[in-house]
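ARCHIVE CARD
Drawer: 12
Card no.: 0347
Subject: one protein chain, sequence and derived structure
Cross-reference: see card 0346
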Amino acid sequence: MELKQYWLIVKRRLLLIALIISVSCLSIGIYSYYFITPQYDASAKLIVNQYKDSSSLIPSIDVGSINSTIGLIKTYKEIIKTPRLMKIVVKEYPELGVSYGELISKVNVSSVNETQVMSISVRDNSYEKAANIANAVAVVFQQKIPELMKVDNVSVLDKADPKELHGPVAPNPKLNIAVAFMLALMFGIGISFLLDYLDDTVKTEEDIENLLGVPVLTSIPRFKETDFTDRSSKAPLTSPVGREHNVSLDS
């Protein structure tokens, strides 16, 4: 099938494709703006050193110690999201009003560009609450890590400020509408080709040649009633000959 034929198939279904795109984009836009609860992100940062005492840290800094500390962060990331630690946060900060299961689902721990800095991010419907949760988890982890690992090498580098004004990170209506547009366009084109494949009616000369295997010698154009009316109105007026005219004979 040639490219021109593909375009003709799509062209015949342009109204259907436009309708699918319009309905999809409008639905996703309304849902994103009015029905999805905005989500906010807040984060607190921790720094992991080899030793708590900075004076003993200076002579021991080398590539090997830094790499071992970065590897230790992977262990810390798993410890933070354990029910044991989250239960302590819930117990010490009852004003947060969340269960340890909710904390586990809200908290995300990552290392900043493979450095000794850890980021505790929390997503919630309120930025203030997300900031308070992130700070609480960071403080509890700093306090409990000496008991768990027998080493005091975690410090709170930066806390989230609950009073700061931050915009929501989700949803992103513009991105959602753009994705809906692309998906609806592909779906509409796919439906167009499917309907064309299922349609076995004869519409063009090419369909007759493909169906019967014989060339088309001639075709009769479709004659509309409007064409007859237009031609009748343009026809020249002639004087009728009949009973209305008097005929005289000279003898």
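Annotation on reverse: Residues 200 and 207 are 9 Å apart (CA to CA). The first strand starts at residue 40 and ends at 48.
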